[in-house]
Amino acid sequence: MGKILDGKSLANLRAQKLKKEVEILKQDGINPLFCVINIGDDPASKVYVKTKKRRAQEMGIEQKIYQLPSTESEESVLNLIDKLNQDPSVHGIMVQMPTPEQINVNHLLERIDPEKDVDGLTPTNIGHLWQSDHFVEPATAIGIMKLLEHYKINVAGKNVAIIGRSNIVGKPLAALMLEKDASVSVLHSKTKSLSTYTRMADIIIVAAGQENLLTSEMVKKGAVVIDVGINRVEGHLVGDVDFKQVLSKARWITPVPGGVGPLTVELLMEQVVKLTRRAHGIK
Ligand SMILES: Nc1nc(=O)c2c([nH]1)NC[C@@H]1CN(c3ccc(C(=O)N[C@@H](CCC(=O)O)C(=O)O)cc3)C=[N+]21
Predict the structure, then answer these.
(1) Does the structure's ipTM exceed the value 0.85?
(2) Which domains, from first to last, does the chain contain?
(3) What pLDDT, on the 0 to 100 scale, is given for residue 283?
(4) Given 6, 116, 117, 119, which residue is catalytic?
(5) What is the dihedral of CA 262, 264, 265, 270, to 10 degrees?
(6) In this structure, what are the phi and psi dihedrals at residue 179, rounded to the nearest 5 degrees?
(7) How far is the CA of 119 from the centre of ligand 1 (A)?
(8) pTM for the whole thing?
(9) 164 annotated to bind ligand
């Protein structure tokens, strides 16, 4: 029987420390300010934005939400980003994904000042990530690394299988795993035999957005399984892993909810504070 990697508890533990850091900054007259741009009315995005807002409030971080209509032009979002880049009271900017189809998200990311890039997704910061010289990292990917570290799960020399090649999870996680000396396979919808890779893997990360994608036959006994999936099924949340079955085969597994999700939000808050300190030349 596997054990639970409790992302929610780790997020709360880290939040206690972060809250104190924010208090100290505020005593020095520095108020961390985080701006979220949400374009359109994707219901999942609205939930995430609200979750972040609540978390920011708990931390004493100010968050401004720019809710734009689904018809907003790319040009006008670029103008908003320029304005936030130039505003010295703004420490962090993020664009909630996905964006509507008239908008090329890469154009938006290119425009964000890398020093205000809370998500670590600007081309500059992705370059830094692959050069192993980074100061902000995509939140989900770094959250997973912190979770493994907290439970003393070493990745060096391990076979790591990542299912999903997104710019926000799969690719940056591959960079972070390589940096820690893992042997990484990045798998995706065109991979011929997923289980060939996953059965060899000591650590499996599933970030594909497909319910029950990872079943117990695909998992080596004693493996570590990290579920990044968020699927709403009949009003409740499930991940990409057949949790019940895989729990009995794995040594460690993350639940959904209460696994990677809360850590993603916590790491975003930490990056806001990190960028705030950096902007003010602290440490
Ligand atoms: N630019 C950008 N950066 C992101 O980091 C980003 C994004 N776009 N677009 C969407 C994804 C998804 N994401 C989540 C955040 C919180 C939970 C979370 O808090 N999940 C809770 C449950 C929340 C609920 O009940 O709905 C949990 O798993 O326990 C999940 C997923 C951030 N994302």
Answers:
(1) yes
(2) 29-113 (3.40.50.10860), 139-261 (3.40.50.720)
(3) 83
(4) 119
(5) 120
(6) -60, -30
(7) 12
(8) 0.98
(9) yes
